[in-house]
Amino acid sequence: MIARDQSSQALSQILESRSRDRGNLISLLQETQAKLGYIPREAMQTIADFLGIPRVEVWGVATFYNQFRLTPLGKHHTVVCMGTACHLAGGNLILEALERELDIKAGETSADGNFSLERVACIGCCMLAPVALIGDRIYPRMTPFKAEEALIPYRQNSDGKNTAD
Ligand code: FES
Fold first, then answer.
1. Dist. CA 116 → ligand 1 center (Å)
2. What is the biggest distance separating any 2 CA atoms in the chain, rounded to whole angstroms?
3. In this predicted model, what pLDDT tens digit does every residue of 18-71 receive, in sequence order?
């Protein structure tokens, strides 16, 4: 995870080159997320101050669009494809299995920071539907059972390590 002063430095660099036009709000949120991996609360306040708009307006936009993450990614970012081919092949069942197993919803990060979960549109390997990714590893032709099994090497032991590291 990026330390608070690093993230505020990164945000300052983004703002340096931008005008204070409120029409920049979405692109500022996108750049912040691209740089930090998510949009911290402090960043929303900084952007609101920069644009001269209420923080609630920034919050409203950040929470309206599901492209924005409000929590940092987990150590093992897990993605379920919900594109047409994967959806038709049962992608929603894979997502439900992972949500149940990880005890988080899509868009959230586990309390220990080990997993984050996200639903995405087509990732370009429809022949393998339904597809999930854990980190950069692709898991093809998933079933709910295979999804549960795939998590095992990434789960933390009591010493905070796992066999996938
Ligand atoms: S729809 Fe899932 S990979 Fe294309």
1. 20
2. 50
3. 999 999 999 999 999 999 989 999 999 999 999 999 999 999 999 998 788 888
d(CA 129, CA 148): 17
Q: What is the total count of domains within the chain?
A: 2
CATH number at residue 102: 3.40.30.10
| Residue nearest atom 1 of ligand 1, based on CA coordinates | 83
Mutation test of ligand 1: which of 79, 81, 95, 133 has the most ligand atoms closer than 8 Å to its C-beta? 81
Pocket test for ligand 1, best of 93, 94, 126 (most atoms within 8 A of CB): 126
The span from the CA of 121 to the CA of 133, in Å, is 13
Question: From CA 34, how far away is CA 29, in angstroms rounded?
Answer: 9
CB 125 within 8 A of CB 140: yes
